[in-house]
C-alpha cells in the first residue's frame, strides 16, 4: 500500500508538496493533547498526518490574518483502522487529542524542524473553542503546551490571500 505519492497527490489536488522530514509520536494515555503547533516563516510547514496505531481527533486552526475563516477550526477523526490522512497547510495551527491508549501518529512535513520557529497557541483558547472530546480524567498535556499563548496575544505571521 502506498501511503504517500507526490505525483498522484499533485495530479489529484493541484498541490505539489515537497516533504523533507517524517516524524512519529507515541501518546500512551487516552486524552493526550498535543498542540496547537506551527512553525513561523521562513520555516513554516505543511503537514500530512496519519495514524499508525489507535485513533485521534486531528484539528487544524486557520491563523492567516485576513482570512474569512481566521480563528476557526476543523477536525477529522484519523485512525489506524480508517487510514484517513489530513493535510494541514502552512498558515494553520495543528493539534490532536488521542481517543485510545498507545496511539502512534506519523506525519510528513515540508520544512525541517526549527526550535527557534517552533510556536503554538493554547489548546483551549476560548476564542477558538475547539470541542475536544476528552475522557472524564481530562486532558494530558506537556508543560510547554499548557503554557502556550492565546491567538489574540500573538503577532500575525501569516497573511491570507484570495485565490485568483
Ligand atoms: C516536532 C519535532 C520535535 N523534535 C524534538 C523537540 C523535543 O525535544 C521533542 C518533542 O517535541 P515536541 O514536544 O514539540 O513534540 P510534539 O508535541 O509531538 O510536537 C508536534 O506536535 C504536533 C501537534 C505537530 O503539529 C507537530 O508539528 C509537532 O509540533 O522532539 C525534533 O527533534 N524534531 C521535530 O520535528
UniProtKB/TrEMBL annotation:
GO biological processes: dTDP-rhamnose biosynthetic process; polysaccharide biosynthetic process
GO-annotated cellular components: cytosol
Record-linked InterPro entries: RmlC-like, RmlC-like_jellyroll, RmlC_Cupin_sf
Transmembrane segments: none
Entry keywords, A to Z: Isomerase
Family: Belongs to the dTDP-4-dehydrorhamnose 3,5-epimerase family.
Annotated protein name in UniProt: dTDP-4-dehydrorhamnose 3,5-epimerase
Organism field: Magnetospirillum molischianum DSM 120
Amino acid at each position: 500500500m502506498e501511503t504517500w505519492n507526490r505525483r498522484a497527490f499533485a495530479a489529484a489536488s493541484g498541490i505539489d508538496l515537497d516533504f523533507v522530514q517524517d516524524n512519529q509520536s507515541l501518546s500512551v494515555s487516552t486524552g493526550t493533547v498535543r498542540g496547537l503547533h506551527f512553525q513561523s516563516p521562513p520555516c513554516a510547514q505543511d503537514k500530512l498526518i496519519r495514524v499508525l496505531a489507535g485513533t485521534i481527533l486531528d484539528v487544524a486552526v486557520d491563523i492567516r490574518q485576513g482570512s474569512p475563516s481566521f480563528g476557526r477550526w476543523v477536525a477529522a477523526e484519523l485512525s489506524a483502522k480508517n487510514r484517513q490522512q489530513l493535510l494541514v497547510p502552512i498558515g494553520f495551527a495543528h493539534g490532536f487529542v488521542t481517543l485510545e491508549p498507545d496511539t502512534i501518529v506519523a506525519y510528513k512535513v515540508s520544512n525541517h524542524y526549527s526550535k527557534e520557529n517552533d510556536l503554538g497557541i493554547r489548546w483551549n483558547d476560548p476564542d477558538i473553542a475547539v470541542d475536544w472530546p476528552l475522557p472524564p480524567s481530562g486532558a494530558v498535556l506537556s508543560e510547554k503546551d499548557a503554557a502556550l499563548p492565546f491567538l489574540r496575544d500573538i503577532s500575525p505571521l501569516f497573511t491570507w490571500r484570495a485565490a485568483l
